[in-house]
Design brief:
CATH superfamily of the largest domain in chain B: Uridine Diphospho-n-acetylenolpyruvylglucosamine Reductase, domain 2
Helix content of chain A: 40-55%
CATH class of the largest domain in chain B: Alpha Beta
Oligomer: heterodimer
Number of helices of chain A: 24
Strand order of the largest sheet of chain B: 15-12-14-13-17-18-16
Helix content of chain B: 25-40%
Structural class of chain B: alpha+beta
Number of helices of chain B: 17
Number of domains of chain B: 5
Distance between the termini of chain A: 64 Å
Largest sheet of chain B: 7 strands, antiparallel
Shape of chain B: globular
CATH architecture of the largest domain in chain B: 2-Layer Sandwich
Number of strands of chain A: 8
Number of domains of chain A: 3
Largest interface: A-B, 35 and 55 residues
CATH topology of the largest domain in chain B: Uridine Diphospho-n-acetylenolpyruvylglucosamine Reductase, domain 2
Shape of chain A: globular
Largest sheet of chain A: 4 strands, parallel
Strand order of the largest sheet of chain A: 2-1-3-4
């Protein structure tokens, strides 16, 4: 099978192995089949040597969290994310991965009203204890009602997305309050940009993702306002539209996208100068979402923004290793995902922090399901601002 | 019981999740291996054995360019008794055993020959015991070198040998290759830091070589085992010596407009009686390959740089670093930079230690040798290397342990270009011949493996090689442990039938 991978990208791995300790699945299993180096060698075997696509080879690709921790560890800058996305697109096209039920579920994310209504039903079912939340990796409690999104100005877009808007709208509202406290007028994207397509590209649904990218771009065209994103996974996906679609228009769009912390770190003075703030009396451990640290490489903005607003910010000592959430990964590969999470919860325990700040909804749901007190970094900032207001 | 076992074996041979056709299972593994796999599964459990093509394909290779390896079933033992059980099963089925650490070897030492049972030691990665009284720690062989030093950090000690791949490579692999590293200039190589080894021998018995507290009576079998490349047995626990962290460290980056000035500086430093912890040299092409990744501020316009580190009591470090600075300037150094803090020091070392991995920034493939040459002839040797490489129309990145004359000329190339592989092999051979002619040695630290075994005749006489073969046979009389490595074919086990005729089609066959 030809996987459709770029030959120059594919041959760029010299198999030095420096990625191994940064791969969450290799660290757990110790098997080359679950390592970036091994996965690339298997891609080459298939595309260049005509090796058959066995079920075990497919498993090797399916078990990848797509955290891209290997990319920041690679001295030769092998674009592993592209290779894995391309491989998954080929495997999904051949019907080897992403079963029909998963495609249906992902398809629903594009339909905002359906998703919001479905989420309310799910929230109700959870309240009535009809859903085994723990087994499915769902939050133990979901909001039955969502306060409406509101526009406060036209300085920036706030990308609200799909699942996060349905399940964690409180976070968007907190982020919006923080931006407004810095004197910024915010317009939430809401129905203008229903879903970024991150989960779809990870599942190998390339053409669907491209269609979704075009829809998001169309919804946010007409001006060149910065597009701020408070979900690391979405931010990474939006920043990749330039590569995904390969057009000047898409590249220009991606250049407008910022992680909200990345943007705020440049506007910290506006936020701090407006009024004195008492820091919250908590020690916060910052969990770097992989798509902020390894893909956007903007993770250092989070502690920079957070530090003035809390008593203490501590870094985890695990070299930014993935928490195992990986979007739909925590559902699709539940066992491995939990084993990876145990290393993260151990790192949090070592840090002595009582609260974990995570800038990605998937990570925060996954870590909260392990019993940690997880907040979005800007929820903490919002809380500190509110306490100073009163 | 038998049914459960049969089901478990099927799981190992085939897929865990979906059914697959009989043809695919048959293609996954030799029919004759089914009984072997069943016995391995019975011995250590089905989650510790893989016999599918993907697992075997990846276990067939290491980080070298050698691609003729062919793995049988792959086991992931979790304990000494698992290893012993795997060895016994393999022997009962007439199969050899090849151990494997992180697969970062550059000489094909971990490439399995003749479809042996591969023992991947990655799950035996625990620090077993820290004995500060004796200055020793017991570790499992799958523990990553850097993880060991990190785990020891709270005690103010570390494990001194630090191969460039230390963030990945395992103590077991270090032991097998008697690995070196930048800091081995002052501290000595692996052999000086391993005091005892627990070993599973080729009959499955477990012995301990060496002693933690005192030199044991009789021959130094520990010394014979270190560097034996997996051919004398499988290490299952290693007692390593702990080294006190130096009270002060000074890391200096010396830059030169001419490679020969850098080489002259190295000789002058040693001649002045200074023993730095490390002296590393990189040439311009190497610096350019790493700087993008390391962001360490390496100057991309210098012809060569030296990374020099001195450590010890702070007074001594201050004096030594000042003397190094003076020597460098007398040898036309264009700049001397001293790392201001731990972060800058870490970035400089990160650059040096990612050199091999960064080659793909230049070319997608590389091949290197690690010959050792007399330090006094460094300039001459480097000129010859550049000349050889030019003649074969190749690129070379030079990065090496200059203090002890251990070269790593990296031939960077693109194997997709027809005829390149041959030119690379020819240039590599010339570099080896030249190094030996200069009074050098075949390998400094990467081991012989399969890559360099045919050069052994160039280094040793028939009598020498026979003695080495007999030493090995005293550990492993039937040549079942990692056969086919180190000793050239006339002296290796290939002629006594331990190596099954390798399937020419490889694991996908």
């Amino acid at each position: 099978m030809h996987l459709g991978l770029d030959d120059d990208e594919l041959v760029a791995c010299v198999a030095c192995g420096l990625c191994l300790p940064h791969c969450p699945t290799f660290v757990i299993t110790g098997r080359d089949t679950e390592s970036p180096r091994g996965r690339i060698a298997l891609m080459r075997a298939v595309q260049n040597e005509g090796a058959p696509v066995t079920d075990d080879l497919v498993r090797s690709m399916e078990t990848c969290v797509q955290c891209r921790g290997c990319e920041t560890a690679c001295p030769s800058a092998v674009p592993f994310g592209h290779l894995m996305e391309g491989t998954r697109a080929a495997l999904a096209g051949a019907g080897r991965i992403t079963p029909r039920w998963q495609r249906l579920a992902l398809g629903m994310l594009r339909h905002r009203r359906l998703l919001l209504a479905g989420s309310t039903l799910l929230a109700l079912a959870i309240r009535l204890r009809l859903v085994p939340t723990r087994r499915l990796g769902l939050p133990a409690r979901m909001p039955l009602r969502r306060p409406p999104l509101r526009t406060s100005g036209d300085d920036v877009w706030l990308f609200t997305g799909c699942v996060m808007d349905a399940w964690q709208r409180d976070v968007h509202l907190a982020v919006q309050r923080v931006l407004e406290a810095a004197g910024v007028g915010v317009e939430p994207t809401g129905g203008a940009a229903p879903c970024c397509g991150a989960l779809h590209i990870h599942a190998g649904l390339e053409s669907e993702t491209k269609a979704m990218a075009r829809r998001v771009m169309a919804g946010l065209s007409g001006d060149d306002r910065p597009i701020l994103v408070d979900a690391a996974g979405c931010g990474a996906a939006l920043k990749d539209y330039g590569h995904l679609l390969g057009t000047d228009e898409a590249r220009a769009f991606s250049a407008r996208v910022y992680d909200v912390h990345e943007w705020l770190a440049e506007h910290l003075e506006e936020l701090r100068s407006r009024r004195p703030v008492d820091p919250l009396d908590v020690t916060v451990a910052v969990q770097d979402p992989c798509h902020l640290r390894h893909v956007q490489r903007a993770h250092q903005a989070v502690p920079a923004v957070l530090a003035p607003f809390v008593a203490d910010v501590v870094a985890l000592d695990d070299d930014g290793l993935c928490c195992g959430a990986g979007g739909a990964y925590s559902v699709m590969e539940a066992e491995l995902s939990r084993a990876i999470r145990e290393r993260k919860t151990a790192a949090v325990a070592r840090s002595g922090a009582t609260v974990v700040a995570s800038a990605n909804p998937g990570c925060s749901l996954h870590l909260a399901a392990a019993g940690l007190d997880v907040r979005h970094p800007l929820e903490l900032v919002d809380q500190a601002l509110a306490a100073s207001r009163s | 019981m038998a049914n459960t076992l049969a089901a478990a074996t099927r799981r190992v041979l085939g897929s865990r999740r979906r059914g697959r056709g009989a043809a695919e299972v048959a293609g996954a593994v030799d029919a004759g291996d089914a009984a072997l796999v069943a016995d391995l599964v019975e011995a250590i459990g089905d989650d510790r054995v893989r016999a599918d093509t993907a697992a075997r394909y990846l276990a067939s290779r290491d980080a070298s360019i050698y691609r003729e390896g062919n793995a049988g079933p792959v086991c992931y033992p979790g304990s000494t008794s698992d290893v012993a059980a795997c060895v016994k099963v393999a022997i009962r089925h007439g199969r050899a055993v090849s151990p494997r650490g992180a697969g970062t070897g550059l000489a094909g030492g971990a490439a399995p020959l003749g479809q042996p049972v591969v023992l991947s030691m990655t799950r035996m990665d625990k620090l077993l015991e820290v004995d500060l009284d004796n200055g020793v720690a017991w570790v499992q062989p799958g523990m990553v070198n850097l993880d060991l030093s990190r785990a020891l950090a709270p005690h103010g000690v570390h494990y001194a040998p630090d191969p460039s791949s230390q963030a990945v490579c395992t103590i077991g692999g270090n032991l097998a290759n008697n690995s070196g590293g930048p800091h081995c200039l002052a501290y000595g190589v692996t052999s000086a830091h391993v005091v005892a080894v627990e070993v599973v021998l080729s009959d499955g018995s477990v012995v301990t070589l060496g002693d933690v507290t005192a030199e044991p009576a009789g021959y130094d079998l520990r010394g014979a085992f270190v560097g034996s490349e997996g051919m004398c047995g499988i290490a299952t626990a290693v007692a390593v010596r702990l080294t006190r962290n130096p009270p002060a460290v000074c890391t200096m980056l010396l830059c030169f407009e001419d490679v020969s000035d850098a080489a002259a500086t190295v000789s002058a430093i040693i001649a002045a009686g200074i023993v730095p912890a490390a002296i590393e040299m990189m040439d311009q092409r190497c610096v350019r390959a790493i700087e993008d990744f390391a962001q360490a501020g390496y100057p991309e316009d210098a012809a060569a740089v030296l990374l020099v580190e001195v450590d010890g009591p702070s007074g001594g470090v201050a004096i030594a670093s000042e003397r190094v600075d003076g020597i460098a300037r007398r040898n036309q150094a264009i700049s001397v930079r001293i790392a201001a803090d731990e972060d800058e020091r870490a970035r400089l070392w990160k650059g040096r230690k990612s050199a091999f991995g960064a080659v793909a920034n230049v070319m997608p493939d590389y091949y290197l040798h690690d010959t050792v040459v007399p330090r006094t002839r460094l300039v001459e040797v480097l000129e010859r290397i550049y000349e050889i490489v030019d003649r074969h129309d190749l690129l070379v990145l030079n990065v090496f342990h200059a203090g002890d004359g251990n070269l790593h000329p990296i031939l960077a190339y693109d194997s997709r270009v027809p005829g390149t592989d041959e030119r690379v092999q020819a240039a590599g051979r010339e570099i080896i011949e030249m190094s030996l002619d200069m009074g050098g040695a075949l390998t400094g630290e990467h081991g012989i493996g399969v890559e360099k075994r045919e050069y052994m005749n160039r280094m040793f006489t028939e009598v020498d090689l026979d003695q080495q073969s007999r030493l090995r046979a005293s550990f492993d009389p039937y040549c079942r442990m990692n056969p086919g490595k180190v000793l050239p074919s006339a002296h290796s086990c290939s002629d006594i039938g331990a190596l099954r005729a390798a399937d020419a089609a490889g694991v996908w066959g």
